């Protein structure tokens, strides 16, 4: 049986919110002038700044609003030392010298929160429980999206970010997430140093691929 498709008149929908384009300074701060930070000043990163970063990053889009990312904020010397033990040799010094570090993890039990964050699709919780491959793919892709937003959010509040993937994720999970027996649900995907950049923070800009090398039109 087929049903006639009807279109809801635009005036009956929720009014569209204006999306004014960012001015050049905003675009530069988030994209064109922003780079991965390698060094920071001694100026501390406050808890208020970190809270502001997450207040922006938490609005990242994720499939069915599942929000699989979890973040460990490392702010103490002891915490940085523990984290540095699990970093690749070339990244240890960066972690130890950074005023703050965010460890972005995927919560492998993220689907338990589906009834809370997406009530109309509450049954998705059981579907994902029965399909670990789909659950892993959904959780990983969503966490990467949220991690990207976290980097942009840090820039938006005036901090520089240094995302790094060189670390022993399993060792980090056991040590910092209390996953000694392998049953914990958090699994680290990305480490991001945060702080105020110093004069030598940035390396020369490397080339970006041209539009004609990466874009296709349909």
UniProtKB/TrEMBL annotation:
- Where do the segments described as Disordered lie? 1-24
The answer to whether keyword Aminoacyl-tRNA synthetase applies is no
**Which GO molecular function annotation, any one, does this entry have?**
3-hydroxypropionate dehydrogenase (NADP+) activity
Task: Point to the regions of Polar residues compositional bias.
Answer: 1-14
Domain Nitroreductase: where? 35-196
What is the protein name stated in its UniProt record?
Malonic semialdehyde reductase
Keywords annotated in UniProt: Oxidoreductase
Instruction: Write down the superkingdom of origin.
Output: Bacteria
Q: What is its EC number?
A: 1.1.1.298
SUPFAM superfamilies, A to Z? FMN-dependent nitroreductase-like
Q: Quick one: signal sequence residues?
A: none
PANTHER family, from UniProt? MALONIC SEMIALDEHYDE REDUCTASE RUTE-RELATED (PTHR43543)
UniProt-listed InterPro entries: Nitroreductase, Nitroreductase-like, Nitroreductase_HadB/RutE
């Amino acid at each position: 049986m087929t049903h006639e498709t009807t279109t809801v008149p635009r005036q009956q929908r929720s009014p569209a919110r204006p999306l004014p384009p960012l001015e050049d300074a905003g675009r530069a701060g988030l994209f064109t002038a922003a780079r991965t930070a390698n060094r920071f000043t001694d100026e501390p990163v406050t808890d208020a700044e970190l809270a502001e970063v997450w207040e922006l990053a938490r609005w990242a889009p994720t499939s069915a609003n599942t929000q699989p990312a979890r973040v460990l904020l490392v702010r103490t010397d002891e915490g940085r030392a523990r984290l540095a033990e699990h970093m690749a040799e070339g990244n240890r010094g960066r972690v130890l010298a950074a005023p703050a570090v965010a460890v972005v993890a995927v919560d492998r039990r993220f689907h338990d929160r589906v009834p809370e964050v997406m009530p109309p699709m509450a049954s998705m919780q059981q579907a994902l429980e029965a399909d670990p491959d789909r659950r892993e793919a959904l959780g990983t892709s969503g966490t990467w999206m949220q991690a990207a937003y976290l980097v942009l959010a840090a820039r938006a509040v005036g901090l520089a970010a240094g995302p790094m993937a060189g670390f022993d994720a399993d060792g980090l999970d056991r040590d910092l997430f209390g996953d000694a027996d392998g049953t914990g649900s958090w699994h680290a995907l990305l480490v991001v140093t945060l702080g105020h950049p110093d004069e030598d923070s940035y390396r020369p800009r490397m080339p970006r691929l041209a539009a004609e090398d990466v874009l296709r039109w349909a």
